[in-house]
Amino acid sequence: xxxxxxxxxxxxxxxxxxQQEVSGDLPISxxxxxxxKNGILIDVRTxxxxxxGYIKNAKNINWFDADFADKFREVDKDQTIYLYCKVxxxxxxxxxKLQDMEYKKVVNLTGGYDAYKREAIKNPDPK
Length: 127
Prior knowledge:
By secondary structure, the protein is α/β, with parallel strands linked by helices.
């Protein structure tokens, strides 16, 4: 019994360290606002595109701005960053840029805002 207990105590930190290592791609249709409890949502489209509609709680940082990278200087490199654009191209490029800047948890929301709008039309109950 004692051995099982000690094995469990040794194993728990390993389990905790394996949880929530986030990176890669996530279909935007699977994005949930609850994920922002430990992350931020960035819309990398132009301000004009952003004004025409965006996902709740998104911050707009235009991929085309010369100071795009500088706008992330105050973001904790261990925080999860969820990125989206119109269809996924710019957010994929932004993801690569941020990973090159040593951000550890960068998620590209594939399909982009267009897919998000299509899903919202099919399923009007927000997540």
